[in-house]
Design goal:
eight-stranded mixed sheet, alpha/beta, about 280 residues, globular
Length: about 280
Amino acid sequence: MKKTLQLQDGERLVYLPRVTYAQLIDPSGKNTRILELGMIKPRYNTGPRPLLIWLAGGGWEKQDRHMWIPMLTYYAERGFVVASVEYRLSHEATFPAPLEDVKTAIRFLRTHAEVFGIDPKKIAIMGESAGAHLAAMAATTHAHHVFEKGAWADQDDSVQAVVDWYGPNDLALQNPNAHNAGTPEAKFLGAAAADCPERVREANPITYITEQTPPFLILHGDADDTVNLAQSELLYDALQRAGVPVDFYTLAGTGHTGLKFMNPQVYAIILAFLQKHLGI
């Protein structure tokens, strides 16, 4: 038997590990810090495609934005441009600096949507742990100009959907040592949570929820001993009260992060949520 097989070429993805989205300048005019993102996209722009922004966690103290590339490739293979965004950590700058960085990255990506093959009207943000906190903050504080500092100021920083993996919200309740200035929350806030209630309120995404807040998908393990499940329950209740579309999945027997969040069932839930609320 002799046959000819016609092979279809799969779309080739590329990973751009170091895309500069901002340069931080001190009062003297010196460039003090470059902020970068990594991007997974088709080799050739075949868009415009929806954008998924990813924020890795690490207690606002550390971050490995490259570690999640295998997981993020799943979404790139299904039609998304994916950007894994770096933000300043607590030893560099306290709140709201990391939030300002995330919002600057959103504006950068919207500004350069045509260059990267992005649909600027279909942007979702997803994060885990501290990254989920910043994702929720970025989504709920749209149009709060106090947080809109940095480059690309003429662009909109809104997102159209949010995926929150076990993120904290009320930082005064997050750590039982709320008077301890050495906790990750205190380092992020710049003071012990118990000593700065107004800043705790300002750093809580629930503070800013309105009926205009974009839809949320919340994922949280019921055995999480790092970020208590009650944190996501607070967020879910507040979103429901405001009439915001929200889905909340509790992962049975699951702790903080871990392989169960890489489960195909979880991937499918996230993908379906994004497709529904981005109109894909």
